[in-house]
Structures are given as structure tokens and as C-alpha cells.
Amino acid sequence: MAPTNRETPALRTNPKFIFFTDFDGTVTTADSNDFMTDNLGFGKAKRVESNKGVLFGHVHFRDSFQEMLDSINTPFNECLDILKKNIVLDPGFAEFYNWSRENNVPIVILSGGMEPVIRALLDILLGPWWDIQIVSNDVTSREGKDLNEKGGWTIKFHDDSIHGHDKSIEIRKYSSLPNRPTLFYAGDGVSDLSAAKETDLLFAKADKDLVTYCENEKVPFVTFRDWTTITQTVKDIVAGKTNVQEAAKGRI
Ligand SMILES: [Mg+2]
């Protein structure tokens, strides 16, 4: 067991399993950034086209995502209010969250979205007592403007990578350790490409872009429709009834 330090906070309780997860469209049923782009920005048709460009390697997620968010002029506080009214939690996530707390399986959110959005939504969706580490992008005001004025905000990326947030950076802090915990990841879309190959078992949301990517890239995975199936599979692995290799069944 490596010493716990500031770089690897999920090891604080000496867990045997860590669950990394995307947030938008994975913990929630709909993606908050897609919702804003479709309803407040340049619209769904162009957004879906741009996602395809990322999926098939024609454009970087960072550039695609910047363009989407730059098409939104709505003040940031108004965006938060709109999202709080429209984004809902996956029907099985609260149960998984409670189980994870009781069974020492830390959850780490790795998101391409903006941290204040994730925090505001979790306050509503899980209640103000939620306690989950978040590693994500952030929001920043445009020069000379306030976040809460028209055209006043833009995304502040986590790192300099083509992903904006390279999710493999956080996962590799753990996967590179000797005698490390078993690592899981759940995701749904193009913001998850940098994480897809990094954990011991990947849950990919059924019918979404991440499944297409895994099949094209021959990355082992298992599909999920909501967190009830994730919960059952993780419980079975923790109980020793199955293992990560057996559980990677592809489309189920
Ligand atoms: Mg997502």
C-alpha cells in the first residue's frame, strides 16, 4: 500500500476498489453541456455533428467543446438556474452512492464539464451533504466581464491536452501504484475517450458514443442503461462472485 498523499485522496480509507465516473449523461440522465448547447447555443444538429467529429478523430474534444460553449451567451447564473430545473439524476445513482459509502468504494467524478455546474446539480440531486471528489474543468469570466452578464463566461480547461481535461492523468496516479485497488470507470460519450483504456472495467452507456469508440478501438467494456446494473455488477465483483474480465461482456 503506497502512502496516502494529496495526489491520491481516494486512497485515504485504504479501499480495495475505486469508482471513477463521468458526470454529464452518466450520473445524470442528460448532459448539461449538451442541454445548454442545444437550447441556448448553436443547436442540436450542429452539436451532434461536432460530437461525431471528435468520435472519429477529425477534431479534438477541446476545440469542439470550446466552440459549443462559446455559442452560449446566457449569463452563467441563468444557465445554472435552467440546468437545475431540467437535469435529473440517473435513477440508480443515489443507491449506488449510499452503497459505496457503506462499503468503502470511493467515487471520483472525472468530468469535462464545469465544476460549479456539477456542484450546483449535486446539491439538488443528492442533497447538500454529498461528499464526492471532483476533478473537472472550470468556468472563468471573459476579460473585463462578469460571469453573470451576457457573454460573460467561458470554460477554463483542466490541462493543456487535446481533451481539455485528460482523464487518464488522475486515473494513472492510481493505476501506476503497486498493490493498487481495482479501478472502475463509467461514461457515455466523447469526453470519456481519454479514460476508456485506463481502468480494469469500463461501463459504457448503452446506445451512446462511448460504445462506438470502444468497439472501433477494441477496448473491453460492458454496457449499462442506468446505475442499477452497475451497482449489481460491482457488488458481485466485490463479493468475489465474478471478476472484471468476466464482467466485460460488451453490449448486454
Ligand atoms: Mg458524459
Any chance you could write out the topology, listing elements then pairs?
Elements: E1 17-21, H1 32-40, H2 44-55, H3 61-70, H4 76-86, H5 93-102, E2 107-114, H6 115-125, E3 133-141, E4 153-156, H7 168-175, E5 182-187, E6 201-205, H8 209-217, E7 222-224, H9 227-238, H10 244-247
Magnesium ion binds next to loops.
Shape: globular
Overall CATH architecture: 3-Layer(aba) Sandwich
By DSSP, the count of extended strands is 7
CATH topology: Rossmann fold
Organism: Clonostachys byssicola
GO cellular component, one term: cytoplasm
InterPro entries: HAD-like_SerB, HAD-like_sf, HAD_hydro_PyrdxlP_Pase-like, HAD_sf
Keywords: Hydrolase
Task: Give short descriptive properties of this protein.
252 residues, alpha/beta, Rossmann fold, 7-stranded mixed beta sheet, 10 helices, 16% strand, binds magnesium ion
Give the gist of this structure.
The protein is an alpha/beta fold and 252 residues long. Helices cover 38% and strands 16% of the residues.
Word description of this protein:
InterPro entries: HAD-like_SerB (IPR050582), HAD-like_sf (IPR036412), HAD_hydro_PyrdxlP_Pase-like (IPR006384), HAD_sf (IPR023214). This is Phosphoserine phosphatase. One of its GO terms (cellular component) is cytoplasm. With 252 residues, the protein is of the alpha/beta class. It has a single domain, classed as HAD superfamily/HAD-like (Rossmann fold, 3-Layer(aba) Sandwich). It is built from 10 helices and 7 strands. The protein has a 7-stranded mixed beta sheet, sandwiched between helices. Helix 5 packs parallel to helix 9. The longest helix is centred in the N-terminal third of the chain and has 12 residues, at 44-55. The radius of gyration is 18 Å and the shape is globular. The mean pLDDT is 97. Residues 22, 24-26, 31, 187-189, 191 line the site of magnesium ion.
